[in-house]
Specification:
Layout: E1 3-5, H1 8-11, E2 15-19, H2 20-29, E3 37-41, E4 46-55, E5 59-69, E6 77-83, H3 89-99, E7 104-109, H4 119-139, E8 146-147, E9 151-152, H5 153-159, E10 165-169, H6 178-184, E11 191-196, H7 204-212, E12 216-218, H8 227-242
Parallel strand pairs: 1-3, 6-7, 6-11, 7-8, 7-9, 10-11, 10-12
Antiparallel strand pairs: 2-5, 3-4, 4-5
Helix pairs in contact: 3-4, 3-8
Bound molecules: S-adenosylmethionine (SAM).
Residues 169-171, 196-197, 199-202, 219-221, 223-227, 230 line the site of S-adenosylmethionine (SAM).
Length: 243
């Protein structure tokens, strides 16, 4: 099923127009025809099947059928704090975490991050937003995750009080597994932060600071995962535990 997002106000209409890049994708890449059915989502938890009634030169009119709730969101809000990885790995992280139900992605610079703060990295955010929107359409997400501009480690620490569970995946942790941590919780978390280190790993001083700010340090097993794999493993284990 091909899916497209429109804004909530557009979604209210009987007939919506798919335009811009989405129109190009619909008409030139997917080559959809009048009479075909697509799924339209309002990026606010609702979707509807829609019949393409007209494909014009710069927009496609779609008649919306019955509206219904999207049931693909996790029962908790998840923010991923991802230490800024090298190359295009952050695109992989954005794509896979979107498929796994993440809500917010916040790149950050840690002590051993190879990538240092630069305007170039800030400019990449627009590209990452496109990756997340496309992964949201492919996976049928009710709400497209947000991608924030990179922050420093101090800012990460200052944000942790916004969450009722902070999970730091630490490669040198041997005893405390994610399962043990989740089993020890007295209540089901509603707002979860996942924190993943860079290719060079976390500095023990960073781990100490995270602990001071209420973070739970967990192992993801005996093998060392790539930085772009670890968040996905943690979130899918979390979903398995709670779903
Ligand atoms: N340089 C580190 C080393 O060789 O020990 C490896 C860092 S790993 C490539 C990148 C990040 O993924 C880590 O900082 C951690 O957040 C996460 N990670 C990878 N494997 C993990 C594991 N077995 N347990 C917990 N976290 C892990």
């Amino acid at each position: 099923m091909n899916r497209f997002y429109v804004t909530p106000d557009v979604f209210e209409k009987e007939v919506v127009t798919i335009s811009g890049d989405d129109y190009k994708h619909l008409s030139k890449v997917l080559r959809l025809k009048e009479g075909e059915v697509i799924e339209v989502l309002n990026n606010n938890g609702l979707k509807a099947l829609g019949e393409i009634i007209q494909i014009g030169d710069d927009g496609a009119d779609v008649k919306l059928l019955e509206r219904e709730e999207v049931k693909t969101e996790n029962p908790y809000h998840v923010s991923l704090f991802q230490s800024y990885p090298k190359g295009s790995k952050l695109e992989t992280v954005c794509q896979k975490m979107t498929e796994n139900g993440v809500n917010t992605i916040i790149p950050f610079y840690s002590k051993r991050s190879v990538v240092k703060p630069s305007r170039k990295e800030f400019k990449k955010i627009d590209r990452l937003k496109k990756v997340v929107k496309s992964a949201g359409e492919q996976s049928g997400r009710g709400i497209i995750p947000t991608v924030e501009s990179p922050v420093d480690f101090k800012t990460v620490l200052s944000k942790l009080s916004d969450y009722d569970l902070v999970l730091v995946a630490y490669e040198s942790e041997t005893g405390q597994t994610l399962k043990k941590t989740l089993n020890s919780l007295k209540h089901k978390p509603e707002r979860i932060a996942i924190i993943i280190g860079p290719e060079g790993g976390f500095d023990p001083i960073e781990i100490e600071a995270l602990k001071q700010n209420g973070a739970e340090i967990v192992s993801l097993g005996k093998r060392i995962l790539r930085t772009e794999t670890a968040g996905m493993v943690l979130l899918s284990q979390l979903n398995f535990f709670y779903e």
